[in-house]
Each structure stands twice: as C-alpha cells, then as structure tokens.
Write a structure and sequence with these properties.
By secondary structure, this protein is an all-alpha fold. The chain is 75% helix and 0% strand. It has helices spanning 5-13, 18-21, 26-51, 58-79, 88-100, 104-114, 118-138, 142-159, 168-184, 192-199, 201-205, 208-217. The termini are far apart.
Length: 218
Amino acid sequence: MPTNPFTDAWHFLTATTSDYLKQGNWRFLLLALFWALLLVGIAMAVKNWREDPTQRTGRHLGMWLVRMLIGCMWFQGMLWKLPLPVSDGLQYFTEQESTNAAFEFHRTFMKDVVLPHMSLFGPIVFLAELVFAGSMLLGLAVRFVSVLAIAYTLQIWLGLYDLSSEWPWTYMFLALLMFVFAFQGAGRSLGMDAWLRREVPAVRDGKGFVGWFFNIAG
C-alpha cells in the first residue's frame, strides 16, 4: 500500500510501523515511553512560554520545533536497533562498515573489535540513540548530548562512506544540525535546560558538580 508522510507519522505515533510490530507486545511499552517524552517536552515548552517572556520569540519556537522533530527521528532510528543484544539491521550495517569505511584503520577496527563483540556494542548503540532522543525531546543537557551525537554520526558517515546505497551527505547534514544544537544551546529554547537555568540556582550559578554539569551541558 502506498504511504505518505501523514500515514507514516500516524503509524509511528500509534506503534504500527514494521519496526514497532517486530517488538511484539513490547511495542506498547516503547510507545508509552515515546509519548511520555513527547508530552513532557511539550509541557516544558508551555511552562517556559508562560513563565519567561524572553522565551516568547519565533527563534525559540522554531528551535524547539526542530529539536523535537530530531528527537522523534532519533527515537524512530533507535527502534530498529531492537531486539537486543543485536538486531539484524545493526548487524548488517556494522558489517558494511567493516568493508566500506573511508579509512583502513576504521575498517579493521570494525572487523576485528566491534563485530566479534556485537553483544556488547548492540546495547551501547541502542542506549546512545535513546539518550539522544530523550535529550532532544526534553531539551535536557542538549549541548553535551549533541556533542556526543556529532561524534556518533561522524562515525557512521565515515563508516558507510563507500557504500553505494548510502549518500554520505545525509550523515554530514545530521552532524551539522547537531552542531547547531550544541552551538546554540537548543535546550535553552523552551526546553528543560532553560527551566533549570532559570529556576535552579545551583545550575544557574554552576555550583556543585551537578549544577556545574547541567550549567555547561545545557
């Protein structure tokens, strides 16, 4: 059956995509997690909008919208890393990196280190993308997480560089977008980072380890 962006979005929001359906009844837990992150992100945006007049700008609204959409993208991408420890899709693309990476040392690393230990790396990849998704949707520690996502995405960019079915610019564009989020502190646009810096003195002043971390991470 032909699809379009509207039907695809509906299937994603209702856990009826092929990636969701492969998880069996676990898909409902994943769907609940997604909706929890999405609704908290929206609620935080409303709270910031109401309480802080400086947040009521087109720039902040636009940055929030793009950040939320990228969070949805990371969550959707995370789904095909299931089931753990290693999904067929992740196994396939990791094998492709072992033969199509831009540099020999990268190919060797994927072949000799990563592939023999996929039961370890599979959960790490899944958790990384879950963290990326949660950070973007909540607007929490966005600067710090965006830097991690840049490194993650550039690895994929170089790892699949010679694979003819992939367009390298796809991953470069994502890395550049994450760079913008890090540079601009996208979580400060109607996100939890903005609320923490406004309402929590330890974060605003960078006091204590936790305060210092969220001060620079957001």
